[in-house]
Amino acid sequence: MIEVVTAGPASQQMGKNRKPYSIFEIIYKNKSFEDKVETKKLTSFSGSYDALLGAKPGSVFTIERAKDDAGYWQWNSALPGGAPVKSAASPAPTPIAGKVIGSNYETPDEREWYRTRSIRGFALGHAISLLKTEKTVPSWEQVQAQAAEIEQWMIRTSDVDPMQAILEMPDDIPQ
Does 90 score more than 70 pLDDT? Predict the structure, then answer.
């Protein structure tokens, strides 16, 4: 839904195909998005041109929008008043189990999955670098066993209070 601020006068333009067309610029408040003031150029071959050309400041219109083949939003029609119009946009996405729709944040399950894969990749890389020498190449079983040990060490938990552990550390600065 938009509220017209100004609907400028139409001017004649020449198209690439050498056919004339009319164009005007409309300045409006986007009522669907926090009354943000926006502008749009409308051409005589757009569906909402005739309805918005003579619009008075303060007039409210409901815009029917659809994406064209190039992926741009086009105004197909403009109806006076605030009647909601169903957009011809693509249907709402169907939710995927465990995936949050409308947000880019990972779910706890996704975060744990990525964390586990990251730790395993790190552990495999370090297992190979620990076992490989100039003269020997470790077997896959050796790499897996070493990586599993590194992974377990990385995800270990401790029942010791961290502050207490710091206080109990021996001094490493010579007197």
Answer: no
